[in-house]
Amino acid sequence: KSSAASDVYKRQALLCVVVIAAKAQEVKKLMSSFEVTERATGAHVVVKSPYRNNSELFDNADSAPDMQFMVPGMKKPLALHQKIMEATSNFVYQLLEPKQTHKNKDSATRKWEFDANTEVDRRALEKVLRFCYGVEMDVGTKDGECSAVIAVLCQLDVICVDEVVAKLSNFAVEEARKDLVVGVELLKAIGHHQECCTQRCTLDKRLTPIVLTAKNIKEHFDLVVNNCLMMIPAKYLDVTEYGEAHTKYSEFHVRVQYVKTHKEEMETEEKQDVMMRCDWTKLESAELKELDELGVVDPRNMLSMYHTVLELSLIHISEPTRHLRI
Question: What is the pTM of this model?
Fold first, then answer.
């Protein structure tokens, strides 16, 4: 009997995979409708939903909902429908018990497991849920809304996630090219939405060469360095294009500023890693002194660095006169 039950379960699982694959193909055909519009508050993109329009059922207590969706920060749970959400979200499909009856008097209660601490995150979640109910999504770049929506799409793992994420990412990149302020806002928001830094979505890698350039650092230092680079993870220091050496736009000086900005939350090892990633052999004596005063490098290593830089300086000085000794 157990063997027979196992075979039935395997056939059901295979059927589910086939159904999901079929839905994905159907959605791809429907995703051709994609519009970009300009609004008074900035650029917005409108994505028409490929799903059946059930907008009148969304969060409607009179529509026989059988799923209470609890979201941190929202006053009351959202009243949803299991069949609609199972058909549009792989995450919800996995979340619900396979044999749970939809006619149960007590509706299923599920809690949103991801971050929804900000108003932007909660607004993005509601937009994507409505999208699953057939409502078009109006997505803007203000306050990093675009990256928040991408994050929710990936978290819910909606059937058409790859197509929609690709289109939203392209929209975000184009807007960042038009307006540096938009690029900065998006890059800062991505720090809170790690779904934008994956193989599925590489929005962070596409934005960094647009925002973190030597030209932008020199011409818009306060915006790009003080209000962006200092507010995002240290890993972005490694992909930044810096200005001339021995200026405030140089890699060394920007890294020093980063360590000073985050001195309270960074461990000594982290600070040392940030500083030792720049080419310290090309530093001048004043810069070496500044590095020493940071207190992130062991005194013995610091002394060794002084000697190395001094030797390289002497070699550099003697190079022009070498021909005189021949």
Answer: 0.78
